[in-house]
Amino acid sequence: MIVEDDPDPDVAYLREAGFEERRKAHKRGEFKLLATYVEADVFIEDTAQTLVSPGLWGVESDLAQEELDEVIAEEWAALRAVLKSVGVATEQLPLEVDREWLEWRT
Predict the structure, then answer these.
(1) Interval 85-96: pLDDT, tens
(2) With contact defined as beta carbons under 8 Å apart, do 82 and 53 qualify?
């Protein structure tokens, strides 16, 4: 599970009415936008492949931990679905995310 700086953050929403305080906080560097996704290295017909969940970009770095956990759980579920769709067995994969798997690349 990867959390890293969003390489191309879209901050247009911060210019909308009602986001004045968030815009000021962003300009002060109080939060940044992140990308979250899950990767899995698998072998498909003797070929190594890295499969990636769809990912979510534009996640605010000061998001409550519970909300970040929810985003990561959704990405984990999405990756499990990708693995199943290409015929990779997922029975031995945990259904829930282990926080120790989280890799911060920010």
Answers:
(1) 988 888 888 888
(2) yes
d(CA 53, CA 75) in angstroms, rounded, equals 6
* Stretch 11-37: mean pLDDT: 96
Rounded (10°) CA dihedral 48, 49, 50, 53: -150
Contact present, 48 and 41 (Cβ < 8 Å): yes
Please tell me whether residue 21 adopts helix, strand or coil conformation. Answer: helix
C-alpha 82, offset from chain centre: 15
**Cα–Cα distance for residue pair 58/68, rounded to 1 Å:** 12
Q: Which of 21, 38, 32 lies closest to 60, judged by CA?
A: 32
DSSP notation for 81-96: HHHHHTT---TTS-SS
What is the reported pTM? 0.84
Whole-number mean pLDDT of the chain? 92
Structure tokens at 72: 């990561």
The token duo for 104 is: 């911060």
